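Quick review question:
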């Protein structure tokens, strides 16, 4: 996990705007609560190693670029639909993607959900009074 440095006293020299916004990738040692993690930090670190999730971001290694045709686009598999909302008269659904965490959920418009009609039907069965695209 990467740690946001905005609440930390980090030696940044004279110009803080040129320093990194996120500190190191740290391993999660233990999940303390639903919104708090204990991180493995090096000895001598002068900040508390228990961090709230709002100050964390998943770390991803840069992979080699995939060879894709110009007309081909990636298709992600939907694990579940968590919520719905209306933004500027457009219904959006909060999507949990297979293999990703809750921090990586995204809001997608109905038009982007062509490949998961069964997940939409399941969501509508669970929450019949939520915002709908129809």
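Suggested answer, residue by residue:
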């Amino acid at each position: 996990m990467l740690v946001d440095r905005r609440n930390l006293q980090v030696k940044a020299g004279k110009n803080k705007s040129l320093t990194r916004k996120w500190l190191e990738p740290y391993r999660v040692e233990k999940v303390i609560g639903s919104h708090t993690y204990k991180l493995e930090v090096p000895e001598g670190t002068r900040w508390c190693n228990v961090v709230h999730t709002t100050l964390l971001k998943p770390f991803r290694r840069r992979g080699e670029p995939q060879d894709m045709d110009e007309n081909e686009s990636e298709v992600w598999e939907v694990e579940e639909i968590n919520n719905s909302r209306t933004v500027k008269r457009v219904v959006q659904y909060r999507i949990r993607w297979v293999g990703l965490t809750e921090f990586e959920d995204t809001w997608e418009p109905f038009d982007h959900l062509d490949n998961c009609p069964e997940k939409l039907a399941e969501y509508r069965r669970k929450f019949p009074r939520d915002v709908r695209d129809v």
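Why it works: The helical segments are 117-126. Residues 2-57 form one domain.
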